[in-house]
Design a protein that fits this description.
Layout: H1 5-15, H2 19-28, H3 33-43, H4 47-51, E1 58-65, E2 71-79, H5 82-85, H6 88-104, H7 109-114, H8 123-134, E3 139-147, E4 151-157, E5 163-170, H9 175-191, H10 203-219, H11 224-242, H12 257-268, E6 273-281
Antiparallel strand pairs: 1-2, 2-3, 4-5, 5-6
Helix pairs in contact: 1-2, 1-3, 2-3, 9-12, 10-11
């Protein structure tokens, strides 16, 4: 029986196995789909069939930054157990996916999965391969590209690869700027800001916060003028907690990130400013 591309695709869709594995299984079984599925299962290449209902709560967050520092890719790859995620093979595999995302400059999961690795196989094929090796469902959950054409990108992955961030800067890149960038990226991981500055926080978010603070003040029977003062103070505190530039720097008490950037620029004759950021925490909902 002729092993057509449509037949290979049908087997691939049923099993999640790699194209080469599907073709070999079909050749071995003379094009019999059901027998080919059994062959793949015996070889461990059809893990998607057996693991489709498994929950992937473990995994790794990895990043890759281009040599010119203008672009960075941050990805999250999931598996089922901490045991597998801690293995060198899985960690290296996750890093290769970050490199693939960077190489095509895309954070579209489907585009990354379809991209080719060095040996000619797609990332999807590579995922199928590692599922066969480790015996666990594995998936690329999300990716994000940060571009800084007028500056540079810095990143930080926390120990254990459970948390990671990328920060885009405008300004001149050098060794000192690199250190500053990594420290700010560490701040993003540690303090989880939701925006770089106030302008990036939607008005509806602030209005909701004001409503909550006002209700709390009224529940305490505060006079209207005092209640409004409390609301204003709480909103300021909200900005300080959630805007990266206004957060207190984790490495120097009493100074904000905005202060640190300003001090750096004065000391080094630079014009560095933060223009973008992204933070991934393993297992959180897609943002």
């Amino acid at each position: 029986m002729e092993i057509t591309l449509d037949l290979i695709k049908e087997l691939r869709n049923k099993t999640g196995a790699g194209i080469n594995d599907c073709k070999k299984a079909l050749v071995e079984t003379d094009g019999d789909i059901s027998k080919a599925i059994d062959v793949l299962r015996k070889k461990g290449a059809a893990m998607a069939v057996k693991r489709a209902d498994k929950i992937t709560n473990e995994g790794a967050v990895k990043l890759k930054i281009s040599d010119d520092k203008k672009t960075g890719a941050l990805i999250e790859v999931n598996c089922e157990t901490d045991f597998v995620s801690k293995g060198d093979e899985f960690q290296n595999f996750a890093e290769s996916i970050a490199a693939a995302a960077l190489s095509i400059n895309s954070d579209n999961v489907e585009e990354i999965l379809a991209s080719k690795s060095g040996d000619g196989l797609s990332i999807k094929d590579k995922i199928d391969e590692i599922m066969g090796k480790v015996g666990e469902r594995t998936e690329l959950k999300r990716a994000k590209i940060v571009n800084a054409p007028e500056g540079f990108v810095s990143g930080y992955i926390h120990f254990g690869s459970k948390l990671g961030s990328l920060v885009g800067f405008k300004g001149t890149y050098d060794e000192k700027a690199d250190t500053l960038g990594k420290n700010v990226a560490m701040q993003v991981v540690a303090m989880n800001p939701i925006a770089v500055n106030r302008d990036e926080i939607g008005k509806e978010v602030i209005e909701k916060e004001k409503e909550i603070y006002l209700s709390q003040a009224k529940n305490e029977n505060k006079p209207d003028n005092i209640a409004q003062t409390i609301v204003n103070d709480e909103v300021e505190r909200y900005f300080q907690d959630n805007c990266l530039l206004e957060q207190e720097y984790i490495n120097e008490s009493g100074k904000s990130i905005k202060d640190i950037i300003s001090d750096f620029n004065k000391a080094n004759g630079n014009t560095v400013e933060i223009v973008s950021m992204v933070r991934f925490q393993l297992g959180e909902e897609n943002k």
